[in-house]
Amino acid sequence: MTDETSHLRTIEQRLLWLSHWMIHNANHVRPKTDDIKVGGHQASSASMVSMMTALYFSALRPEDRVAVKPHASPVFHAMQYLMGHVPREKMENFRGFGGVQSYPSRTKDVDDVDFSTGSVGLGVAVTSFASMVQDYIRAKPWGAEVKPGRMIALMGDAELDEGNIYECLQEGWKHDLRNVWWVIDYNRQSLDGVIREGLWQRIEKIFDAFGWDVVRVKYGRLQRAAFEEPGGKALRDWIDACPNPEYSALTYMGGAVWRQRLLDDLGDQGEVSALIDRRSDDELAELMENLGGNCVDTMAETFAAVRHDRPTCFLAYTIKGWGTPIAGHKDNHGGLMTKAQMADWQTHMGVPEGQEWEPMAGVADPAALREFLARVPFFAEHPRRYSDAQVAVPNIEIATDREISTQTAFGKILDKIARQDSALAERIVTSSPDVTGTTSLGPWVNRRKLFAREAIADTFKTHSIPSTAKWEFAPDGQHVELGIAEMNLFLLLAAQGLSHSLWGKRLLPIGTVYDPFVHRGLDALNYACYQDARFMIVGTPSGATLAPEGGAHQSVGTPLTGLAQDGLAAFEPAFADELAVIMEWAFDYMQRDGDGDPDERTWLRDETGGAVYLRLSTKPLEQPAKRVDDSFRQGAIDGAYWLRKPGPNCSVVIAYQGAVADEAIAAAGMIGEYRRDVGVLAVTSADRLNAGWTAAQRERKRGNPAARSHVECLLGQLPPHCHLVTVIDGHPATLSWLGAVGGHRTSPLGVEHFGQTGTIGDLYRHYGIDAASIAATVGAMTDGANIRLAAAE
Predict the structure, then answer these.
(1) Which DSSP helix (H) or strand (E) runs through 92?
(2) Sign of CA dihedral 737, 738, 740, 745
């Protein structure tokens, strides 16, 4: 046995103990205020400990990145603790406030997390997109020096039930994926039961179909040695034929039961009986539980043998709960060792009482192990969080002398940037799930090309066939073509949006998607924001305004998603000049990395930066005259400005967001002679208005009575009797809260039900968000003269 092998076995046992003690401490030792289980997944951690030891302490290099199986988080934290990267108090507070997190988190943990995990399947798939981003960066002159690393996912076998896994596999095949490892913990047990027989065959066929190498790691060192003994083939055949539930049950019952079952099934076969008899009950149990994934020697050898860059799936057989008293039990997914079991196991593990948290407890030669740990390549560059200089953002303007939609304006703004030789143009990368042309990215792609590692000519151009689209692939291309899978889009944005931290090269990613399908990728969007990835997502077209497409393509709830999603600043501009101002601000905001102190003008934490969501429309609107005043520009960024300022005796304010601007403006004209001093509030971001308002309230609770948000300043000038009418092509709850800011009665208008086909006018009238309906609402809900709509129209 080599020194490295000896150290790896020692580390494996140390991580097994520390991870399980941390969970036990949280559930049975640490003071609790209630009897609610803390949890921690002891069994799922145990099945991964050998693989993680071999990977981190033998195979990995600093340029490699890993997404850790969520339920193996305790092993990851134990590993960082062993290396001195996490203080003991955070380990003691596992799953507590301020302690190490239940699942690895880039934003909540202090240890060196590469990719957050938790929503199963997403952490797996993001490694593939990270590899694609790495290829993209290295293909550019400004990123050629980046050293290529492997993007690795440690995954549970149940994660293969997630559909996004297969969407990702197909996308990876299309992009000639490389430098990706997926290591499957094939323990054949999930929360609700045992995995079906023969799943491994389906897994291998699926990965093979998408061009992956599959390495099956079924037998550990002890088993392979036993197979070489007389009678070994019979033992191997028995292991291969044993059903998953039976193998788990026998593991839990232990060596004596193993012996009886093997002898009953194999009979008195001389050689095989002698093989069994040469081992004590404990030795026999150790042999039968020595599957490949639970053998650190085998896993280290297996990883070291892969020297190519082809995507590789390691199907590593394991025992769930390996090495612990709950190994193999079908309830062990959420189960915990009892206090009595832990006491006996502590003795078995050789950890003296009182030294439970000691990293080197029970280690025969601590000095030698410390010396080995100091030489482990992966940890040589800790921490591996990089940064890149901010990209200068030039002034962004657009002509507003004609009718134009916000979607068209978006395309024109990007086209203008694409024409420039600027740092901003160089670092923008776009992507879209098969809706590039219909979301106005066409001009950008025509000028900046599509990305591929190898050039691919545009066949239509080669044959001189006229086309508005230039579909040319090249290493210097700046658009990533995606199939029609929105989860893939958001996972790609997540990886692109972490480029400055993972590789020290900043990208400014822009993704476009039909707005209703933001919700189709919502889990991945939330995942990207949770990691603090920086990107711009453009949802367009949106709302019932997409009238001919019908209810399946008309988004209703996405404005509420923009309002609620943490890490995402949501905007819905109505006019092109608003969009230009917002995009200029957004490109800067995506790069900020401040300490989180709020801006005392708005009480927004803008210095922290984040991702940006633009909800746009294909509805052309007549544009206002050119506006350059600071109040307009700042108001568009802060979330609202007065398009028509209210008078001192204002009786009605119409507050709108997005494409219904013309209806709101027309309604204000209709009621002007019937109601006093009517105001029109242009809301560009209900999200930022609401965030500033709630933040200012918290500040006042902390003893600062002068704290006032932007929306409070806007509405604070209104008299108490003023009535608010809010209108949006989306769910009315998006703006309905505005009345609570100053205690004004409010009538919220919007779309609450699935849409249908028709003209814009048809649908606006049907849902009551047209000018006449807005005016009728004012007439019905406010005091004053009757509003004669027919005359007004």
Answers:
(1) helix 88-92
(2) negative
